[in-house]
């Protein structure tokens, strides 16, 4: 539910903007507000869980997320919708790491790998299914339902959680509040997320606002790290980074998730804008990745107890890189199944990447650091998603402009104009047809270049995992206390 909300609203912004009487640029704040709030709050998970208890944090966050979803669904102004989305981001930030931590507490050691496998699949299904569900609900009902659909799910989770999770509540630790660390966190993460969300539309560092936000984020980050490492009760426990296995696995997770997510950013847009796919068809094509992950999750859980997880991670990331490389063969004539099959085959390898990586990150920290480690893990996935979205779209757009010049040279416009004119096309229509042909080829060439870059990043990540120490054991995962 939380992962779906990261992407489900993307395809609905034009409908929301039209209904509320706002511009598309104003409508983009529906996405930005959620992303900024979530990015700021995710690192606080360990501190919040320690102060209030893991189960209380999870249930209270679910209640808050459900209420804010309802407020989003009944919003009649942009201000009300953005405020409600901020609330969704705040409460949703704690749900993902808390669900991960509580799963480790509920399942016995021999079944935790399987539980984490299913958890990882749900994590990967969000980016794949979000646009399709959002497009379907918006086209067939109204944009309000992309938020109201959360309410019955939230109610079910609250009832089940209240009934079953109370026996595993963790002890509360009443610690001083690190107000300075909290303020610095809000400063640097908030500015960074704004740079990533707004930079592409403001010509990046040509805009003084983006420059100012970037400087504030960098300075805030440096001061934040220095302060938190010297604080006795930090708001974000950065000391978990002292574990080499955690640091390496977290870096690989960020790179691999960014490379994996890049495809979800540009492929649906290319399919809809240039190949004429409906929103539901483009979303269905992306969802094949999640289908592949469902198939291999039990196998990965079985192999993890018998093999070095670094080998599974390296193989899984290399497999995703191979699928990115396969996409460089796509053309403007590729049909639905040609585009969907690599998505499915990619999904077969994604769980080999995600599940062992989560095991490596959480197995290398102390038991009382699991909640903090899970929070940092979710935070890095959030930032990796934001960075991948921003950089991928910018790189794709810049490469399109370069590819257009190459396409014009290959097309030989004079000969093409003469050929179309000979078929009876009027001059204005000839120019429009040629322009569309050039734009289509340029966009496709830029897509291919983007996947070449993605392949290189993924190959680097597949090699980097070997810097992590070999785990002492490959069995169950630790439980946070």
From TrEMBL:
Any Gene Ontology CC annotation: plasma membrane
Keyword Disulfide bond: no
Subcellular location: Cell membrane
Keyword Secreted: no
Source organism superkingdom: Bacteria
This protein's UniProt keywords: Cell membrane, Membrane, Transmembrane, Transmembrane helix, Transport
Name of the featured protein: DHA2 family multidrug resistance protein
Species whose genome carries this gene: Novosphingobium taihuense
């Amino acid at each position: 539910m939380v992962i779906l909300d990261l992407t489900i609203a993307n395809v609905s912004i034009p409908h929301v903007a039209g209904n509320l009487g706002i511009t598309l640029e104003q409508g983009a704040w529906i996405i930005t507000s959620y992303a900024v709030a979530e990015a700021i709050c995710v690192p606080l998970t360990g501190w919040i869980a320690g102060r209030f208890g893991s189960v209380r944090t999870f249930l209270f966050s679910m209640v808050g997320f459900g209420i804010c979803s309802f407020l989003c669904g009944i919003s009649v102004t942009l201000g009300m919708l953005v405020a409600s989305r901020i609330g969704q981001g705040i409460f949703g930030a704690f749900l993902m790491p808390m669900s991960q931590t509580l799963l480790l507490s509920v399942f016995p050691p021999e079944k935790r790998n399987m539980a984490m496998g299913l958890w990882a699949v749900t994590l990967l299904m969000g980016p794949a299914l979000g646009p399709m569900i959002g497009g379907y609900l918006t086209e067939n009902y109204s944009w309000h339902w992309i938020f109201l659909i959360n309410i019955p799910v939230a109610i079910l989770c609250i009832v089940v959680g209240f009934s079953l999770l109370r026996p595993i509540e963790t002890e509360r630790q009443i610690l001083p509040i690190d107000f300075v660390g909290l303020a610095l966190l809000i400063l640097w993460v908030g500015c960074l997320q704004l740079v990533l969300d707004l930079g592409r539309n403001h010509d990046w560092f040509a805009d003084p606002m983006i420059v100012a936000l970037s400087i504030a984020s960098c300075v805030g980050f440096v001061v934040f790290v220095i302060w938190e490492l010297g604080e006795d009760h930090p708001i974000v426990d950065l000391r978990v980074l002292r574990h080499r296995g955690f640091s390496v696995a977290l870096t690989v997770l960020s790179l691999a998730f960014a490379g994996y997510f890049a495809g979800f950013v540009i492929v649906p847009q290319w399919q809809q804008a240039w190949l004429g796919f409906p929103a539901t068809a483009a979303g269905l094509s992306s969802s094949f990745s999640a289908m592949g992950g469902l198939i291999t999750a039990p196998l990965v859980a079985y192999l993890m107890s018998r093999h070095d997880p670094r080998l599974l991670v390296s193989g899984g990331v290399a497999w995703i890189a191979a699928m990115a490389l396969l996409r460089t063969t796509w053309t403007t004539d590729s049909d639905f199944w040609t585009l969907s099959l690599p998505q499915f085959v990619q999904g077969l390898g994604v769980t080999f990447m995600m599940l062992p990586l989560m095991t490596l990150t959480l197995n290398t920290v102390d038991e009382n650091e699991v909640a903090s480690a899970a929070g940092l893990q979710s935070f890095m996935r959030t930032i990796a998603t934001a960075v991948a979205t921003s950089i991928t779209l910018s790189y794709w757009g810049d490469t399109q402009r370069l590819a257009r010049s190459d396409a014009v040279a290959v097309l030989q416009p004079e000969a093409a104009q003469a050929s179309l004119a000979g078929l009876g096309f009027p001059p204005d229509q000839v120019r429009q047809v040629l322009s569309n042909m050039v734009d289509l080829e340029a966009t496709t060439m830029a897509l291919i270049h983007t996947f070449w870059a993605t392949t290189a990043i993924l190959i680097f990540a597949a090699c980097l995992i070997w810097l992590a120490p070999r785990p002492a054991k490959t069995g169950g995962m630790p439980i946070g206390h």
